[in-house]
Amino acid sequence: MTAPVFLVDRVTGGTVTLDGPEGRHAVSVRRLRVGEDIVLTDGAGNGAYGTVAAVEGKDRLTVTVTEVRDEPAPSPRITVVQALPKGDRGELAVETMTETGVDAIVPWAASRCITQWKGDRGLKALAKWRATAREAGKQSRRLRFPDVADAATTKQVARLLAAADFAAVLHEEGAEPLATAELPSTGDIVLVVGPEGGVSPDESAAFAEAGAKPYRLGRTVLRTSTAGTAATALLLGRTGRWS
Fold first, then answer.
1. What CATH number does the domain containing 86 carry?
2. Do 52 and 161 share a domain, yes or no?
3. pTM exceeds 0.85, yes or no
């Protein structure tokens, strides 16, 4: 089994102490012991690989680092603009997209979203998305965790699409399948996943003006909480990032 990953503020060589919540999880939940392999990462592409040298109490261990790696930023970069789903489906979308390999997630308050992030509720929901991405990043043994942006308006999403090297809106009535779209080998790919009620005509027009075309995934219609994951997997395979 591959070594478990834990988050640290800074990756260094030599001897490192892991404490606080991450140390508690390593000792009391994962029950790591002396001699076991471990990976420490800052979530920004830097990783320290080593072994547990000592366990102190229930929330502290010492790691002897044997190798430090710097994982370059992947290319092309894949960003999914995710319309806000109902209930905990948002965390599900973030979790599975992170495990699959997405590079950035932008929550989008689409006009047809039943869920709306406002005030403290919105801040708590965003914090949950970010915590989910962090935990999924560790679980999937990533050194570089996806960025989860602040919630975006339609105008902000349009600007993001306009700046992309490839911009797409998943739509069941798209004339071209995403599987045959011409993709860039570098730069930024931005993909919009609409809400269960679909992208409104005004939003579609704004995105089209920004240069985004509608594409379909396949013959079936996926829910908003799973479409981004399926599309990310397709793009990772087609761009060679999974090869």
1. 3.40.1280.10
2. no
3. yes
